[in-house]
């Protein structure tokens, strides 16, 4: 209860501060009525914060359905809009105190407000729209029996308030229609353990429909949401969970290897050492000239894949940073933050994710990725 009260207090405090700042700035820049602005901003912001908070706990019952989700998206949009305009308006207000044409500051203010609306609208569209990316990868080392094998990478769905088991069902049904052979679930699959029974039932039903099955690796959010309980449900769902170990995929007498690694919680140089340790464990015993896929949640493992000349490394975690008007943004945070990377004959891919715990994606839509493996150069 203490944690619940703290989070709600933070949301309400942020609502108050942003409402105050935006009202003060608009009053100074446009001469609008202070009391009306502040009262309106504060009322809507507090309602949005309270609804946003309680929706996460009650979306399966009280706020169930499309309308409840729509209201939640509106609440998030309003709160983000308030935050997005606060800092720019403060900057404009401070600059206006040094003089200049009144019309200039009014125009800048209008641009800020409209720009924030456009960005939030783009964010809402990106949170709902799902792209199916397709990549064809060629390898001379691929056994000819696997020529044409189609793989689907599904990461970061974050089943919970904004994305549900039904979303995964739609993705898997589309994969069936697209004749996918093998599904990779790249972690951060579930945030709300109340949806575990429905998830288990879906995976048990769908796993036999894919010729090479479904493999899963752990993300960080499963550890935040009761990883032992999630492990129990997944163990009975007919999918394969790989944790610093490898397995094989067989087709017409040929074999390729799949190495799956756990999520590394270290940082900096310790992260690199932990990623190396996990990859060592996962790849121990794999024949030297075997075709290998490395499955991970954290994109640090792309470096491990490149170093070891692994044919294909798949990861997620970053959500593409959920903000991408300029392409691969924030490279200092994650050198491999989204998209396709190559080094020699090795390929690495970081998915933007099929969902998210914050339902706003600005020019960085949700993604499921299909890879078709081809033999040859």
UniProtKB/TrEMBL annotation:
InterPro entries: Calcineurin-like_PHP, Metallo-depent_PP-like, Metallophosphoesterase_sf. GO terms for biological process: lipid A biosynthetic process. Pfam families: Metallophos. One of its GO terms (cellular component) is membrane. CDD domains: MPP_YkuE_C (cd07385). Residues 150-320 form the Calcineurin-like phosphoesterase domain. GO terms for molecular function: metal ion binding; UDP-2,3-diacylglucosamine hydrolase activity. The chain crosses the membrane at residues 33-54, 66-91, 103-125. Keywords: Hydrolase, Membrane, Metal-binding, Transmembrane, Transmembrane helix. PANTHER family: PHOSPHODIESTERASE YAEI (PTHR31302:SF31), TRANSMEMBRANE PROTEIN WITH METALLOPHOSPHOESTERASE DOMAIN-RELATED (PTHR31302). This is Calcineurin-like phosphoesterase domain-containing protein.
């Amino acid at each position: 209860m203490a944690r619940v009260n703290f989070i709600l207090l933070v949301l309400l405090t942020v609502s108050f501060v942003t409402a105050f700042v935006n009202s003060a700035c608009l009053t100074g820049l446009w001469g609008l009525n202070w009391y009306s602005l502040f009262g309106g901003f504060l009322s809507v912001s507090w309602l949005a914060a309270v609804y946003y908070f309680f929706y996460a706990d009650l979306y399966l019952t009280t706020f169930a359905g499309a309308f409840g989700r729509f209201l939640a998206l509106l609440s998030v949009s309003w709160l983000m809009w308030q935050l997005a305009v606060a800092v720019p308006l403060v900057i404009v207000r401070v600059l206006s105190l040094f003089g200049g044409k009144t019309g200039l500051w009014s125009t800048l203010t209008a641009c800020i407000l409209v720009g924030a609306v456009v960005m939030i609208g783009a964010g809402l569209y990106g949170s709902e729209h799902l792209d199916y990316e397709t990549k064809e990868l060629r390898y001379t080392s691929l056994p000819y029996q696997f020529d044409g094998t189609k793989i689907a990478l599904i990461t970061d769905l974050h089943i919970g308030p904004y994305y549900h088991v039904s979303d995964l069902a739609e993705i898997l049904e589309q994969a069936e229609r697209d004749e996918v052979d093998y599904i990779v679930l790249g972690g951060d699959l579930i945030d709300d353990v109340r949806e575990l029974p429905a998830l288990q039932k879906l995976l048990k039903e769908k796993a036999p429909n894919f010729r090479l099955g479904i493999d899963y690796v752990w993300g960080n959010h499963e550890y935040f949401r009761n990883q032992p309980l999630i492990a129990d449900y997944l163990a009975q769902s007919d999918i394969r969970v790989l944790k610093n170990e490898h397995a094989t995929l067989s087709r017409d007498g040929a074999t390729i290897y799949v190495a799956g690694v756990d999520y590394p919680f270290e940082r900096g140089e310790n992260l690199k050492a932990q990623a190396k340790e996990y990859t060592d464990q996962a790849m121990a015993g794999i024949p030297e000239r075997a075709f290998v896929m490395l499955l991970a949640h954290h994109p640090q493992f792309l470096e491990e894949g490149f170093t070891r000349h692994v044919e294909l490394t798949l990861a997620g975690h970053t959500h593409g940073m959920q903000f991408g008007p300029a392409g691969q943004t924030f490279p200092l945070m994650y050198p491999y933050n989204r998209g396709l990377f190559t080094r020699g004959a090795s390929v690495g891919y970081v998915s933007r994710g099929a969902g998210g715990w914050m339902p706003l994606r600005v020019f960085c839509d949700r993604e499921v990725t299909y890879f078709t493996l081809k033999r040859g150069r």
